[in-house]
């Protein structure tokens, strides 16, 4: 990329930020009520999310300048005088800067895999940003809407805080959608359908009651139900929906009377209520990650990442049982690295570990690419330098071709890494249709491995009977 194109890209990004901030600010100004600051103010949360998710943007003066212009231009376009427009922009930018500095100081990690600690740190940064921004913004608030400076500070603080709590979690946890299948889409929708149905029902009840004071917490059961699923973005989206709806109810949207300003108590209560479901969702997600790590540690080999012998046997038996009812072919590979002890003796155990890791990578690459059965291969480490693979839906002929590809790649890799000391691989192939035990397949493939060893190693041998006959045939 040339310097000119790089500068051009930065200018385009800065322009995009300015346009977004201008649009969001205009929307926020339109939500102002008589004698009140804005009910919704999304601009600060949007700018902060951009700076958190795109670290390079923090260092570009163009981005900050564009954001400032967006703030000022929005106020000027809505009839605000130049001086208060500039002061308001400074207040908003000051709040964003302080919140960002706190995030950096507290080393906030990727919020898309948030922990409860991350949520607390985010809340701390937002509170600090709102407090500092309100120091400057209160001066304009008092000039425009009257009252004392502490009242203006509290009004600005509460408005900014509820908007951060409402919008920032959604903006920080949203992911790029990855289309997989209709089944995956239906499954994802099904997992949140109950929570959303409950949320909508509770919102309807709250609206019918028209009592904003008691209705603020009405949606909490739905939010907690979603949070217990451990999905941060889904929870954040529901929190945003609930908070916006409660703000609208508090203002009096749909009521016969004229809209009234939202009290600072209601705004702060909504912000605090938003924190609970997010903490629960983060805690649930972290618990799931820990359980996955424990499951990984107990089922996967520490060095190679393939299945341990016990887990391999359990999964293989399950697939073989499935083959009993379908009659589909199943192939089995037993693989033993040649002269592995010699490699360890001459090059050290670190070289041996490297050889095992690289061989397991070859297995995943070759066997993971075969698509004869959608469930793919099961690969396990069944001994020190011994590996096995069960290939459901794969014929013996296809398994032999795959084994030959594994043998060839291992030979090339071993010679490239260790020369004459490298470990080639001897592979035994067996197959079956119908009802067979794992022991039968392993024994026949193991016998073929020994045949390959006797024939000089670095070879693929298919079991003499080619395909085992089903029991009872």
UniProtKB/TrEMBL annotation:
The chain crosses the membrane at residues 12-29, 85-106, 118-147, 153-174, 186-209, 244-262, 268-285. The keyword Transmembrane applies. CDD domains: GGDEF. Keywords: Membrane, Nucleotidyltransferase, Transferase, Transmembrane, Transmembrane helix. PROSITE patterns: GGDEF (PS50887). GO terms for cellular component: plasma membrane. Its EC number is 2.7.7.65. InterPro entries: Diguanylate_Cyclase (IPR050469), GGDEF_dom (IPR000160), Nucleotide_cyclase (IPR029787), Rev_trsase/Diguanyl_cyclase (IPR043128). The keyword Methyltransferase does not apply. One of its GO terms (molecular function) is diguanylate cyclase activity. It comes from the Bacteria. Residues 328-465 form the GGDEF domain. Pfam families: GGDEF. One of its GO terms (biological process) is cell adhesion involved in single-species biofilm formation. This is Putative diguanylate cyclase YcdT. It comes from Mycolicibacterium chlorophenolicum. The gene is ycdT_2.
